[in-house]
Amino acid sequence: MKRSQINQILQSAQAFFTEHQFHLPPWASWTEADWQGQGEACREVIDCQLGWDITDFGSGDFAQRGLTLFTVRNGKAGSSYGKTYAEKIMVVDDGQETPLHFHFQKAEDIINRGGGKLLLQLWNSEGQGEKADTPVSVSIDGVRRTLAAGGVVSLAPGESICLTRGLYHRFWGEGKVLVGEVSQVNDDFSDNRFYEAVGRFPSIDEDEAPWRLLVSDYAEKIR
Predict the structure, then answer these.
(1) pLDDT of 223 strictly over 90
(2) What pLDDT does 193 receive?
(3) Which of 112, 114, 100, 116 shows the shortest CA–CA distance to 171?
(4) How far apart are CA 14 and CA 58, in angstroms?
(5) How far is CA 23 from CA 19, 35, 60, 115, 157, in A?
(6) Is the CB of residue 74 less than 8 Å from the CB of residue 186?
(7) Which of 177, 13, 169 is closest to 98 using CA atoms?
(8) pLDDT of 78 strictly over 90
(9) 63 — alpha (psi -120 to 50), left (phi > 0) or beta?
(10) How far apart are the first and last CA of the chain?
(11) Distances (CA, A) of 155 to 95, 151, 210
């Protein structure tokens, strides 16, 4: 992805957060220059991968297959930070897909915080990561619901779904959606099982300076 495209996506996301009165921590608006010399003071931010995250899942077509995320809080296995939970806020554009995947360890609540509707397609998993042809039982705001394999759930603003370990899910927006996630500790390096091979973190063509740093920038750009 081009850095100029990423900058535009982040600016649009920031405006959408503001529109829905979701406020970010102060360092969310730091420039690359602001980060310099903050490495030790912000060690938790860096270690736990808090902050801005953009992915096109290796598709080369962010509008059709991509996701904008901001990790607000997170823990890290084996660390002294003491957090066993995570929270994210995300922007899902109209028709924009996050591809089919599950988590080995993480259970998560996915919440429609505002905007359009969020649609999720669900399968149980079995064996070595195959999709199972069995009914899917999920909790939607504490109410149990059973779907056929591959069934679709539509969440309106204020509604949420609990996605348990090993439950395959893909989602997309019907309209632009502000999506929250409350979960166990998030680990994008080892806890995601995508049904098809994807790229989680994009390679970046540095055609202009970053407007905000991404979590994938920290190792290279923070001194």
Answers:
(1) no
(2) 97
(3) 100
(4) 23
(5) 10, 20, 30, 16, 18
(6) yes
(7) 169
(8) no
(9) alpha
(10) 24
(11) 14, 13, 34
